[in-house]
């Protein structure tokens, strides 16, 4: 726990300083602390992605980051002083005491527990590749999962600090949890003063999502980071609309953050639709320089992601075969890509047979539904009921002659667009959980915010009751899991140093004088040896381009 807390303090300081330096470029307006941290995370991640194209992520890369943080802090020293004056009273209050206790609880979960399945398959190994090589051309041939190239693993690698301590820290997911939860608690404190409660319910959604993943807080899982960013963007969008000044600059920055979220995982790629509203406002105001500026920001975020895709897989977007523009020696063969994409779909649909990838929705939907746990079925039911409640609340607003809110309409478009992609492509609950939560929380927030009378109040109240009943087994399941976890983990010896990555049973073979490792039993691609693969058949159909690992891999 102690190493986790020290790591969080360090990550907090670096992200805050980098984020403050970045947002200072957008004028003299003041942003809230979480805004600085999110901006810092995005900028640091993009920096690491760029750096990894040319060199490994070690002490030199970290040294440059420290210099940048110091310069940003010196340049914004007055802003830091004002920020400290604003938050200092909280530290010595009962509110501050609650935050400290909550952070200690999260540190407990982040110091021990289970790793996400995919962390053992490829997250940890991909972080090690960042640390040892930066990137390796065609590494996706060795194991296709490497080609997914989530930008979150870049952020995790810069704060792994394996080069300094001789072992990897994996505290970034817990850090994101802490940041998001404190942001949610801080906003919920003013619940009674808010006229509209959509943002409050989205804050409650962040807390619900944290509850779901708490026992795996130490895992640098790309799903968790993606869903946290999606929830933050949706919540901050609502906050700007209902509790702020509906500042178009904030909408623009959140749209840029939506582009970043797409580099975390394709499951939230349609968050970029949020840009429709601020783009309309900028075009209407003929603010061409600002338009070009935000387009430039989005391109800077996308550029290293796409370049890394090219080098890692030979494809612009993996596993998407419709954009086939490169001819490289390390390119993953199209048949492997298509098989991988089909496998993602059939596993998400609980079919587990690639031959069934073209099965119509009406046939695979009952199979998928039967494979969900009871509490998941009820949660999905709550989402459908919430959709009905949203229509009822919209009807109430129209009957009361209240204007439509275009910012909220665009948000609905982005949320439902992502849910459509999730459902049709790979409907694992964890891939779309942030958007399922958003549908429920926005509907409940609408109910709590609008004046209701007569028949419609009875209908809306009945729907709300059904939603609460349907969601209850979901959070009850994970509260029980967390309680059992605490009971069984209290005696584990991780109060000083965090639990290390799992060590799988690995063997090796030699290719052109280089040892390449593969799993011999469990599905664990060990962080502790590199480069490696979980799947020996993938290794057998690959080889090195030259005599060194740095030369890259190609298909045989």
Can you describe this structure?
This protein has helices spanning 2-23, 33-52, 59-75, 77-91, 94-110, 117-132, 139-142, 152-158, 162-165, 172-188, 198-213, 222-242, 248-264, 276-284, 288-313, 334-348, 361-370, 374-399, 406-425, 429-449, 454-489, 536-540; strands at 506-511, 514-519, 532-533, 542-544, 553-555. The protein has 556 residues and is mainly alpha-helical. The strands form two sheets. It has a three-stranded mixed β-sheet with strand order 1-2-3. The chain has a two-stranded antiparallel sheet with strand order 4-5. Helix 1 (2-23) crosses helix 2, helix 13 packs antiparallel against helix 14 (276-284) and helix 13 packs parallel to helix 15 (288-313). The chain is globular, with a radius of gyration of 24 Å. The model has no long low-confidence stretch (mean pLDDT 94).
Strand-helix topology:
Blueprint (H helix, E strand, L loop, with lengths): L1 H22 L9 H20 L6 H17 L1 H15 L2 H17 L6 H16 L6 H4 L9 H7 L3 H4 L6 H17 L9 H16 L8 H21 L5 H17 L11 H9 L3 H26 L20 H15 L12 H10 L3 H26 L6 H20 L3 H21 L4 H36 L16 E6 L2 E6 L12 E2 L2 H5 L1 E3 L8 E3 L1
Parallel strand pairs: 2-3
Antiparallel strand pairs: 1-2, 4-5
Helix pairs in contact: 1-2, 1-3, 2-8, 2-15, 5-10, 6-8, 10-11, 10-12, 11-12, 11-20, 11-21, 12-13, 12-20, 13-14, 13-15, 18-20, 18-21, 19-20
For this entry, give a set of tags:
556 residues; mainly alpha; 3-stranded mixed sheet; 4% strand; globular
In short:
The protein has 556 residues and is mostly helical.
Q: Count of helices?
A: 22
Radius of gyration: 24 Å
Distance between the termini: 46 Å
Number of strand segments:
5
Give the mean pLDDT: 94
The percent range for strand residues is under 5%
Structural class: mainly alpha
């Amino acid at each position: 726990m102690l190493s986790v807390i020290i790591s969080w303090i360090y990550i907090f300081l670096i992200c805050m300083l980098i984020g403050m330096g970045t947002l200072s470029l957008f004028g003299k307006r003041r942003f809230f602390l979480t805004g600085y941290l999110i901006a810092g995370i995005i900028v640091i991640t993009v920096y690491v992605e760029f750096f990894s194209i040319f060199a490994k992520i070690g002490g030199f890369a970290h040294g440059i980051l420290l210099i940048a943080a110091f310069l940003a802090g010196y340049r914004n020293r007055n802003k830091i002083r004002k920020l400290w004056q604003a938050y200092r009273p909280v530290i010595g209050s009962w509110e501050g005491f609650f935050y400290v206790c909550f952070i200690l609880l999260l540190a407990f979960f982040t110091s021990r527990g289970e790793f996400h399945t995919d962390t053992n398959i490829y997250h940890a190994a991909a972080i090690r590749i960042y640390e040892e090589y930066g990137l390796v051309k065609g590494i996706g041939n060795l194991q296709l999962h490497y080609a997914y190239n989530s930008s979150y693993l870049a952020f995790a690698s810069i704060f792994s600090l394996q080069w300094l301590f001789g072992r990897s820290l994996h505290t970034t997911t817990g850090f994101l949890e802490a940041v998001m939860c404190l942001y949610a608690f801080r906003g919920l404190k003013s619940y009674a003063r808010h006229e509209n409660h959509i943002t409050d319910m989205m804050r409650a959604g962040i807390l619900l999502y944290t509850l779901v993943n708490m026992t795996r807080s130490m895992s640098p899982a790309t799903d968790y980071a993606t869903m946290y960013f999606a929830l933050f963007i949706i919540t901050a969008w609502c906050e700007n609309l209902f509790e702020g000044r509906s500042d178009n600059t904030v909408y623009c920055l959140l749209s840029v953050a939506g582009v970043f979220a797409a580099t975390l995982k394709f499951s939230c790629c349609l968050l970029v639709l949020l840009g429709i509203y601020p783009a309309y406002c900028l075009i209407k105001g003929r603010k061409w320089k600002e338009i070009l500026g935000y387009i430039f920001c989005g391109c800077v975020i996308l550029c290293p992601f796409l370049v890394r895709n090219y080098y890692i897989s030979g494809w612009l977007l993996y596993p998407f075969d419709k954009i086939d523009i490169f001819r490289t020696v390390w390119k993953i063969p199209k048949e492997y890509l298509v098989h991988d994409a089909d496998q993602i779909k059939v596993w998400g649909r609980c079919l587990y047979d690639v031959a069934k990838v073209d099965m119509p929705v009406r046939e695979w939907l009952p199979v998928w539904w039967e494979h969900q746990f009871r509490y998941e079925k009820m949660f999905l039911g709550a989402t459908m009921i919430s959709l009905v409640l949203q229509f009822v609340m919209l009807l109430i607003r129209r009957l009361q002659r209240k204007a439509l809110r275009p910012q909220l309409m665009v948000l609905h478009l982005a949320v439902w667009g992502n849910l459509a992609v999730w459902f049709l492509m790979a409907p694992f609950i964890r891939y779309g959980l942030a958007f399922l939560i958003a549908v429920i929380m926005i509907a409940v927030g609408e109910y709590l915010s609008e004046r209701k009378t007569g028949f419609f109040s009875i209908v809306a109240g009945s729907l709300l009751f059904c939603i609460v009943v349907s969601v209850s087994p979901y959070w009850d399941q994970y509260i029980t899991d967390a309680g059992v976890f605490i009971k069984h983990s209290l005696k584990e010896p991780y109060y000083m140093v965090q639990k290390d990555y799992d060590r799988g049973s690995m063997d090796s073979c030699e290719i052109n004088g280089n040892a390449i490792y593969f799993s011999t039993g469990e599905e664990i691609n060990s962080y502790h040896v590199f480069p490696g693969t979980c799947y020996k058949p993938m290794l057998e159909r690959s080889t090195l381009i030259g005599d060194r690992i740095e030369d890259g891999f190609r298909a045989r």
